[in-house]
Specification:
Among the domains are: 208 residues, no CATH class; 144 residues. Helices cover 65% and strands 7% of the residues. It has 23 helices and nine strands. Strands 1-2-4-3 form a four-stranded mixed β-sheet. It has a three-stranded antiparallel β-sheet with strand order 7-8-9. A hairpin with a 7-residue loop joins strand 7 and strand 8. The longest helix is centred in the middle third of the chain and has 42 residues. Keywords: Cell membrane, Hydrolase, Membrane, Metal-binding, Metalloprotease, Protease, Transmembrane, Transmembrane helix, Zinc.
Length: 550
């Protein structure tokens, strides 16, 4: 499909949204006018308020169309003078791809590359181009593989994908915003956003806005909630249904085009950078995606929860620790050999990686094989400094002022802080039972004395309970409490080993933080077995006492 036809298709999809919105707004206006003409005053007022409340989300959806340029990514802009080799590679690839080079090059923290074009006239006229490169790609890919990734993105420019994306994405945002706004009051689900870059800051801002909310705003919410309980579910359901159907149609139509654009860009990458390098880049990127998620969640996130971060540059660059770990080589090789296949749906924007690899491998052999080459990070001048600068652009102000420390110290201090918090419910239950609080070693000794005296489950009764656990009795009550009791006892035992035996949590890139005694003795499995024995129906505190005694 040519650029003109795709532009017309995108414009027709937008026009369909406008026609639907106008029809529904006219229907709501007509219903309100009819109520004033034939219904009692109270009914007319109710109909008018409901029409306004339902019509506002539609108006917002229409009015958001064309606002913003979609270029909301954060990243470090690098100049040609500062990074000449990287820019030379990009310009050379643009020439071989047959398209104009980007005007800006930005480095991000994501395992992703993307292009954006600030277009005019809803994307019909070209504009300033931006190329985003994720630092993890520079760390994990070879130079030919990175060339393939860049050529793929530049291929979107050559196919005019970025110009028409302005129409498509803005239309999609408007439709989805309208559907979300038409959700009936009182039926909103809880916020399920994952903690992310701005999660804490956004939550605080929303809380502040709620505290500063005007009386009028509170009154409007109260009226909307009250009316929603009366007629909201029916009215909102009827009005929302055509928009939900159009949203499904819009996504199916636009995402199918997006999948074809990705396959076309893959062919460009294979032609410019080589078939084998393109396949290798797809396999390696799939591995990087998994490894980066593990690194950020298990290691960086661990420290951040305790107010700690690794040394400067390691937040975005530390993923190489996992890539270089000898214990992970076999697992990473397995991931490369079995890229994600997934179950494609009509709403996917990208075909499954396995399908993309299969189609590229079916292309004719272009001669050059994916041979060893220098890491893509070598394209950066003073790479370590660049990693630090990237962090400065992607971290929140709160994160930027966190204490920095090396990985061994971060691991021990962070896990210790979290373990103290996790042990608190059991220590509180012990205090409620009558055990005088003390150090971790003293509390553990007192708990084991209670076990030997047959009072463990008397202590456990003071643990927090779910409603179902609170209703249970006898053996069922014990089984409800046992997981929390075992977890609390283990946390307390770990703290006691740190306090009395000099144990420390040490980083393990393959297995996560591990608790070790002096002399590198790993006690994780031994401790888990000892705790299970102590809280069993026929308890034995000997193993745990022996472990604590050394």
């Amino acid at each position: 499909m040519g650029t003109t036809l795709r532009a017309l298709r995108a414009l027709f999809l937008l026009a369909g949204f406008y026609v639907l919105a106008l029809a529904v707004l006219c229907a709501l206006t007509g219903a309100a006018l009819a109520a004033w003409a034939w219904a009692p005053t109270g009914g007319a007022v109710t109909a008018t308020v409901l029409a306004v409340l339902v019509g506002l989300p539609i108006l917002r959806g229409v009015c958001t169309l064309g606002t913003g340029d979609g270029d909301g990514k954060h990243g470090l802009a690098v100049t040609e003078a500062g990074q000449p080799e990287l820019w030379h590679a990009v310009r050379s690839l643009a020439g071989r791809t047959g398209t104009r080079a980007p005007d800006r090059l930005l480095l991000t923290e994501e395992v992703n590359a993307a292009v954006h074009e600030r277009t005019r006239l809803l994307g019909l006229l070209p504009g300033r181009r931006s190329l985003y490169l994720g630092v993890p790609l520079l760390i994990g890919l070879s130079e030919p593989q990175l060339h393939s990734v860049i050529a793929h993105e530049l291929g979107h420019y050559g196919n005019a994908d970025t110009r028409l994306a302005g129409i498509t994405l803005r239309g999609r945002d408007s439709v989805l915003r309208t559907v979300a706004g038409l959700q009936a009051p009182g039926r909103t689900r809880g916020d399920r956003r994952k903690p992310g870059r701005d999660g804490g800051r956004t939550a605080a801002a929303e809380a502040g806005a709620e505290r500063r909310g005007s009386t009028a705003a509170v009154a409007v919410r109260a009226v909307r909630s009250g009316l929603g309980r009366i007629a909201g579910p029916l009215l909102y359901g009827v009005v929302a249904r055509p928009f939900q159907a159009y949203a499904r149609f819009y996504l199916r139509a636009t995402q199918s085009v997006g999948r074809q654009q990705e396959l076309a860009a893959d062919r460009v990458a294979a032609r410019v950078a080589g078939r084998d390098a393109t396949v290798a880049a797809l396999r390696e990127t799939a591995v990087l995606d998994v490894v980066h998620d593990v690194y950020v969640g298990r290691y960086v996130g661990l420290g951040a929860r305790a107010g700690l971060l690794p040394p400067h540059g390691e937040v975005v660059g530390g993923v190489r620790q996992l890539l270089d770990d000898p214990e992970l080589r076999a697992d990473l090789a397995e991931l490369r050999g079995e890229p994600p296949s997934g179950e494609p749906t009509p709403y996917d924007s990208h075909p499954p990686v396995a399908e993309r690899i299969r189609l590229i491998e079916a292309l004719p052999d272009d001669g050059p094989a994916a041979s060893p080459a220098r890491p893509a990070l070598a394209l950066l001048r003073d790479a370590e400094r660049v990693l630090v600068e990237v962090e400065g652009t992607v971290l929140t102000p709160e994160a930027l002022v966190m204490e920095r420390t090396d990985w061994p110290d971060l691991t021990h201090r962070a896990v210790h802080t979290l373990t103290e918090a996790d042990a608190r419910p059991l220590r509180t239950a012990m205090a409620a039972f009558g055990i005088t609080p003390g150090s971790a070693a003293e509390d553990l000794a007192a708990l084991l004395d209670a076990v030997d005296a047959g009072r463990l489950w008397w202590v456990a009764r003071h643990l927090p309970k779910s409603p179902e656990a609170a209703r249970a009795s006898g053996r069922a009550a014990r089984e409800f409490l046992r997981p929390d009791l075992e977890e609390g006892a283990r946390n307390l035992a770990e703290l006691a080993l740190v306090e009395a035996a000099g144990a420390r949590w040490e980083p393990s890139w393959a297995a996560g933080p591990r608790l070790r005694l002096p002399g590198e003795r790993d006690v994780e499995e031994e401790l888990a077995a000892a705790v299970r024995a102590a809280v069993a129906d026929d308890p034995d505190t000997g193993p745990l006492r022996g472990l604590l005694a050394g």
